[in-house]
Every structure is written in structure tokens, then in C-alpha cells.
Amino acid sequence: MEKLPKIGIPVIIIAILLIILIAKSAITIESGQAGVLYRTFDNGVVTDEPPLGEGFHVVAPWNKVFVYEVRQQELFEKLRVLSSNGLEIQIDASVWYQPVVSDLGNLHQTLGENYLQRVIQPAIRSAARSVVGRYTPEQLYSSKRDAIQDEIFEETKKILTKQYVQLNEILVRDVTLPTTIKEAIERKLRQEQESLEYEFRLVTASKEAEKVIIEAQGKAESNRILSASLTDKILQDKGIDATLKLSESPNTKVIVIGAGDSGLPLILGDN
């Protein structure tokens, strides 16, 4: 076996070193990520330049790149907090967040890669305690879920404003009350509903009674007016008209005998 030339060994060593350096210098940033450059011999974390974007990058082998997920991320939280009267309430919430890309260097320098545990979770828990403590269990169970969701979001957002984190949304998925409190609230709501139904039936019956009274009063007034307008002369004329119509019937035999007490003809006949 032929020996390699003396000059060949250094070339091979240099080539190997170059390959190692290139491998250590080549950085690929995946989709939805960004990189924070750390210059070992030049002030450490780079905060005055934009972070490294998606794609292939070459950096000095003695420098480092810390890769962050910059897409929107979701955190599921089960929060145990106290209501205004001291009862423990469990809130299940979803939190949508992401780092501020332009401040990624500052985020890395001040909070590091575990910024979720350092600032986001404590901020949410603090805001939830503050907000829920303003309401009773009944309000949380029925009418105030949307309100507490918005208030927790606003208070958390204030805390995170200067933490280089962007809070997009907080969604309250469920509010769990102690079983005895939940049953008491449901029972009260049923009673209120039944009371409303009973009041509605009373109002309906009252209106129906008023309608009957008004109709009766109208009929009585009509009869009074009619009675007052019927004189003996009018009654006599109507009687004559009725007699004439009766006499015109082909099934009636009419015999005029004289006059009755009312002055009308007496009619005898059969069919």
C-alpha cells in the first residue's frame, strides 16, 4: 500500500476542519421561527438588529443562535381562584400568545426561552384572581362569563405590555362551581322562571277578565240606549210590520177579529 504524500495529510486535516466549521456555521431557521444571534466575543445577545428570519444562514462558528417559535401558540390553563364571597372557582381557559418578533433579542436577554413560565402564566393567574374576586358564583355561572373573559384579557395584557410578549386572546372555556353551590343556583333559577310564568298567567287572566267586563258593560249600555229609544208608537209600528209580513205567508190563514190591548190586529190561523 502506497503511503500518502506528506503534503496530503495536512490537506485532509484542513478539509475535515473546514467541513466541521461549515457544519457548525450553517444555521437553518424553519417556517414560523426566528433566531436570536449571540456573539461570543462581541457583547453577547444582539438586540439592535432584526432577528434571523426563515431560511439558511451562515454565522461564525464561535457564535450561537437561539431559535424561537414566533407563530401564535396556545396555552391551556386550569385556574383555581376565589369569588367575592370566598368560594373556590375553577376556570378553564385557553390563552393565545406569541413573542414580539422585533423584540426577540430583548426577550431572550431579559426572560430567556422559558418566558412562558416566567411571565405569561403568572400574569394570567394574577389577573384571574383579581377579576373573579369581584363577582359572586351566581354571576360567574350565569351572566358574567363574557365579562370576566374580557376583563382577564385586558388585565393580563397590561402586565405583559413591557415583557416583549403579544397576547392575542383569552377564551374562558368553562367555569366550575362547587356542586352544592351549582345546585342551589340552578334551583333558584328554576324558581325564578316558575315565578315569571305564574305572573304571566295572572296578567293574562286579568286582561281576559277586563275584556269580558268591558264587553258586558258595552252590551248593557247598548240595551239601555235601545230601551230608552223604544216608544209606544215605535213598538206599534214594528208590530204592524211584523203582522203584515206574517199575513203574507202562504201557510197562514188570517182572520181579523178586532184589536188587541196594544191596538194591533188579532190574527188567528193555522198551518
From TrEMBL:
One Pfam family this sequence matches: Band_7
Keyword Signal applies: no
CDD domains: SPFH_prohibitin
GO molecular function, one term: peptidase activity
Keyword terms: Hydrolase, Membrane, Protease, Transmembrane, Transmembrane helix
InterPro entries noted in UniProt: Band_7 (IPR001107), Band_7/SPFH_dom_sf (IPR036013), Prohibitin (IPR000163)
Gene Ontology cellular-component annotations: membrane
Chief location category: membrane
Residue ranges of domain Band in the record: 25-189
One GO biological process term: proteolysis
Subcellular localization(s) per the UniProt record: Membrane
Record has Transmembrane helix as a keyword: yes
Bilayer topology term: Single-pass membrane protein
Domain of life: Bacteria
Coiled-coil annotated residue ranges, if any: none
Chain segments annotated as transmembrane: 7-27
Name by which UniProt lists this protein: Regulator of protease activity HflC, stomatin/prohibitin superfamily
